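Could you join me in thinking about how sequence relates to backbone shape in a protein? Label the sequence line and the structure token line clearly, so we can match residues to local backbone shapes. Once you have written the record down, we can walk along the chain together.
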Amino acid sequence: MSEAPLPCPRTVSPARCLDWLAEGWRLFAREPLPWLLAAGSFLLVLTLIGVVPLVGWAITLLGFPILGAGLVALADDAAHARPLRLVTLFDGLRRDANSHIMVGVFHLAGALGIGFLAALVGASAALTGALIGPLAAIGLATGGFMLAVVVFTALWLLLIMALWFAPALIRLHGMEPVPALTTSIHACIQNLPTCLVLALGLYVLTWVAMIPAGLGLLVLIPVVAGAHHAAYLDIFADRPALTDNASR
């Protein structure tokens, strides 16, 4: 894979989150039917994988970044007014498949490692308390649980940061998996307030989308894909996403 020189990530204002979401909505509203089909297929594939006995959860974690790369490709096509094709959703297996699979493996290994470490912290505190005495056990178990939650949350946020821009950096910039993951973390930490505002907004929108029997996800997924693409262009490309779109 030929890797283009990567500009340093820019720091952008948290107010840009609204612009990214507005861009995502604009891309969806321009061609809603192909987006609805792609979002439905995305959910269907993950659901079918998830019900596979014993290993479904692992394959889901492995496949999520791969399908995420397809959503990035669809958003890029939409932003450049190219036809939206359902097969593009599976671009993560059709183009640079090894790199996207490696990101999926990182997602799976990271989730397992974080869960194991958090459980180990909580169990160690509970075991120590049990050896000391019942009163100490209560205090240590409570403290251990709280520490495990803090450890889990911090590491999970770091994992999300690594995965956030990695598919776009691989698909649109030709990066290798490890540099893409580390560059994504760098960009998210550099724009931490903006990422936190975006995460809060997506959290609220996800709950709203779940109200009508989850059907709102069919709209939210395309909007998030478009917002993700706009954020990528804002932070990494030579020109902000909205300026680029407006010039066409």
Summary: Residues 239-248 have pLDDT under 50 and may be disordered. The chain has ten helices and no strands. The first helix runs from residue 16 to 30. The CA atoms of residues 24 and 116 lie 36 Å apart.
